Amino acid sequence: MSGLRTLPVLLLLSLQAAASPPHWVASWGASPQARWDQDFVLPVGVPASFEQQSVRDVVRLSVGGKRLRIVLSNRYGATPLHVGGMRVALAGEGAALVGASRAVTFGASAGASAAPGAVLVSDPVDLPAGALARLAVTTYYPAHTPVSTFHWGAQQTPYLANGNATAAADLPAAARFAGRAFLTTVLVEAPAATRSVVVLGDSITDGNGSSPDRDRRWTDALAERLAPSGVGVVNAGISGARLLGDRMGANALARFDQDVLAQPGVASVIVMMGINDIGWPGSPFAPGDAAVSAEQVVKAYRQLIARARSHNLRIVGATLLPFEGALAGTPFEGHYSPAKEAVRQRVNRWIVGSGEFDAVFDADAVLRDPARPSRLRVDYDSGDHLHPGDAGYRALAQALDVNALMGKSARGIEPDGARRRPRR
Question: What average pLDDT does this structure show over 110-114?
Fold first, then answer.
C-alpha cells in the first residue's frame, strides 16, 4: 500500500517537471547603435542598405544550450525591417559552415517584419551548441533595407553575398565589412541554474585593440572562465560609448533597460565606462563639449546603481584604465590631458572607496604601469595607449574576482585579483 500511496506524488512531480517552461539565457550580444554618416569624425564602415542580399554573421556563444533563439533589432529604424529568410549553423573558418544549417522561423514563417523601434525574436531552433561554440547566422534581406540599426566595429567580419545565400555552405566570393547589422542577441535554452553577466562598457569592452576575428576581447576570456560553471557573458560594449552623452550609441542611462535589464537570465552587471566622458570633450570626437567633472560621472553611476537595485540585479563597478598618451600622433590627438587625468583619478577613488557598488573590479590596478601609473603597462598596451592588446584583455579577465561578481561562491572558477567592497 505504501508504494501505491507514492504514485500520485511521483506523477505530480513528473507533471510539474514536464510543465516547467524553458529557461532562456542570453549567451551572446552586440548592443545596437543609431547610424551616422557625414557629420562625425569616424566612418560608419557598413553598407548604407541591403537589397536582395544575405549577411552571414559569425558569433561565439558563452554558455551553450539545446536550442537557440536569434534576436534582430530595429531599434533605430524609421521603417519596418523585413527578413526574407534566416538559417543558423555551426561556424567553420571564414564564412564556411560546419554541418547542416537549420532554418530559423518567426511565428512558424520564414519571413517576418519588425516595426520601427522593435525587436524580432525567432522561434526556438533545434541546434544543440556547446559552451563557446561558434555560430554562423545568415539573414536574407529581399527588399531595400536601410542599415539604420547597427553595431560599429566589434572586431568581427560579416560576409555580404548577393541573393538568398542562407543555405550556402561557404561564401568565397562574399564582400566583407566591419560591424554588425541588426543582429543583437543569441539566446540559449539551458539548465535552470544557468545565468548571465552583462558587461556595460565602451571600446575597451567592445575589444578595440584585440586581434580581429579571434575572440580576444576581455569578455571572451571571461566567458572561457565562467562558462564551465554555467555563467554566460553578454558584451554590451559600444566603441565611443559614454555615461552621459550620445553619439556612438545612446548614453548608458538611456540604453540600460534594453541592453542590460532586458537580457534573459541576467544576474549581474559590470559597469566599465566613463573614460570617454572624460576624454572626448575638446578632442576631435567632441570639440565643442564642455569638460565633464568627476561629480557628473559619479551621479551617472548612482543612477545605474539605482536602476540595477530596483531590478534586484548585482552591480559591479570597474575602475577606469590609465590613458596617458592616448591616440597621440593620430588625427584624434587631444583625448588625454593632465586635467583629464585628475578627473579619472577622482572617479577611481570614488569607485574604490565609496562602497556604493556591490563590488569593485580595480581594472586600473591590473593594467597600469607600476613605474608610471597614468599609463598602461607596455606589455598590455595595444599601441595606442588607450586600449589594451590581447595580453591586457586576458589579464583583465583573469583578475576579476568571480565571487565578488556573482555575490556568492562560484564553484569551479578560480577567483583572484579584484577588490571587494561591502554594500552600504
Answer: 96
